Amino acid sequence: MLKRVIPYAHELIQQVIQPGEIVIDATCGNGHDTVMLSQATGPNGVVYAFDIQAEAITNTKRLLEENQLNNVELIHDSHQYVDHYLDDRADQQLAGAIFNLGYLPGSDKTIITKPTSTISAIDKIACRLKVGGIIVCVVYYGHSGGQSEKEALLDHLKHYDQKQFNVLQYGFINQKNHPPFVLALEKKQAD
Ligand SMILES: C[S@@+](CC[C@H](N)C(=O)[O-])C[C@H]1O[C@@H](n2cnc3c(N)ncnc32)[C@H](O)[C@@H]1O
């Protein structure tokens, strides 16, 4: 059976995370990916979870408490400033990052991820990723502003050096209503 998009995205990143490593949830939203990453890195790992909305930080904090997880640093800031928050340990142990593009489900649909900040964050994380690490983006683009973000991202990632990164697109091309798809960047060699 072909994997659905979200389980596939989770499987990709779970495969590369070793207990004790550092990972990033670039868009924590309601916290579902943060919980998955927190469980994958375990008590000696760290998850840096970003969101620009206070509501998202509150929702994620609540979900982490309900699941008794305490290895997450919640950061109420844009992921484009990711480098302000990572210390030197991240240069060897940054295993991966996940982005869910679009708006916070059940909230204000005008607060969305934007091409410039998304691309800036991906580039910064890609530089610091360990060899074998992965960045996974679940691209939702049916909302206003989504199509231009999708196009900008695809244009940008197409030009990543193939010696250094494998860049994958995975999605179902016969589904109606702008089905989300996965973009994944696997780091093959250091800069
Ligand atoms: C599709 S939702 C994320 C869903 C989340 N992964 C979950 O499991 O519930 C996208 C989130 O990205 C956030 N966001 C938008 N721009 C951002 C930025 N520049 N930096 C960090 N988060 C951002 C939104 O506030 C929203 O909560």
Short synopsis of the structure:
This protein is an alpha/beta fold and 191 residues long. Helices cover 34% and strands 20% of the residues. It has a single domain (19-187), classed as Vaccinia Virus protein VP39 (Rossmann fold, 3-Layer(aba) Sandwich).
Describe the overall structure:
Helices cover 34% and strands 20% of the residues. The protein has a single domain (19-187), classed as Vaccinia Virus protein VP39 (Rossmann fold), CATH 3.40.50.150. With 191 residues, the protein is an alpha/beta fold. The model has no long low-confidence stretch (mean pLDDT 96). The chain binds S-adenosylmethionine. The site of S-adenosylmethionine has 22 residues, from helix 2.
Offer a few descriptive terms.
about 190 residues; Rossmann fold; alpha/beta; binds S-adenosylmethionine; single chain; about 35% helix; 7-stranded mixed sheet
Low-confidence stretches: none
Residue-averaged pLDDT: 96
In whole angstroms, the N-to-C terminal distance is 37 Å
Question: Order of strands across the widest beta sheet?
Answer: 3-2-1-4-5-7-6
Per DSSP, what share of the residues sits in E-state strands of 2 or more residues? 15-25%
| Distinct ligands, ions and cofactors found in the model | S-adenosylmethionine
CATH fold-level name: Rossmann fold
Major beta-sheet overview? 7 strands, mixed
Shape: globular
CATH arch. level architecture: 3-Layer(aba) Sandwich
What integer value in Å does the Rg equal? 15 Å
Element order: H for helix, E for strand: HEHEHEHEHEHEE
What is the top-level CATH class?
Alpha Beta
Number of helices: 6
Number of strands: 7
Helix and strand content put the structural class at alpha/beta
Number of domains: 1
